[in-house]
Design goal:
Helix content: 40-55%
Function: RNA helicase.
Enzyme class: hydrolase
Family: Belongs to the DEAD box helicase family.
Keywords: ATP-binding, Helicase, Hydrolase, Membrane, Nucleotide-binding, RNA-binding, Transmembrane, Transmembrane helix
Strand content: under 5%
Structural class: mainly alpha
Catalytic activity: ATP + H2O = ADP + phosphate + H(+)
Length: 86
């Protein structure tokens, strides 16, 4: 069964400040990986996704992080293994 995918950022149930920044950055349509995972992330599901570099995985993660910061009283710490090389 084929799943209809909505690639429009406007279709996301996100806060207006997040939507405004996405517009200011001139993003109009989501990449396939974004369209497939962002709705599930926003719904609270754990998601594992892979895609080539530059296809929007980081933006998908950051949209969720920003939405959580607005709705929850906690912080986010991001550890990047590449920053800890000797």
């Amino acid at each position: 069964m084929a799943m209809d995918i909505n690639y429009d950022f406007e279709s996301l149930e996100i806060l207006e400040p997040t939507r405004k920044v996405i517009k200011e950055m001139r993003f109009k349509k989501m990449t396939e990986v974004q369209a497939r995972i962002i709705p599930h992330l926003l719904a609270g599901y754990n998601v594992l996704g892979t895609a080539k570099t530059g296809l929007g995985k980081t933006l998908a993660f950051l949209i969720l992080a920003i939405e959580l910061l607005h709705s929850q009283i906690f912080g986010i710490m991001i550890l990047d293994k590449w920053r800890f090389k000797n």
